[in-house]
Amino acid sequence: MYKNVKKMAVSICIWAFVQVFFLVPGITCWWITFDSSAYDGLNDPMMYRIAYLFVAIISTVPFVFFWIKVVQLLVINRFNTLFEADADGFIPVAELAKEMGMSEAKLIKKTNNAIRKGYLINCNYSASQRAFLLSDKTGKPETQFPGMPANQPFIGVSCPSCAASLKIRATTQGTCPFCGRLIQAPPAN
Q: What is the pTM of this model?
């Protein structure tokens, strides 16, 4: 499993609650904004219409963010499906980008962001190999991709430049997703 189901469920529940909390006021303000009978008898109806429109737009923002979050979680589900289908634990960026239908730079940015936020787990991006390494799938040496590091566990390291907490396979190197510094992982204890 490469998706953090608990974190995804908590995230979607929070955004769903926020969306529902703002939904009724938002719909009401949109209705009042475009209902001309609501402004009968007012000296300056345009000022009230603008005020209701402003509140309606502000109330709609959580609704939009909720659906953006849903799309992001669907992309993470797709990554999870592709990672689970892999046999050797080594997925080149070019292959994954082709399968996902996006550019390599966009794919790296999305996956590093999902890993950093904790939505994707048990995987790491190796910048030197331009591939994703899956921690629980390291095939036998004869089936591994050429250049695949030995069956080493992921260990926690701290970036010497920005002090970010990262996980990287022991005795390998990677780049920090926050500052871009090259990090060399020590051997596992």
A: 0.61
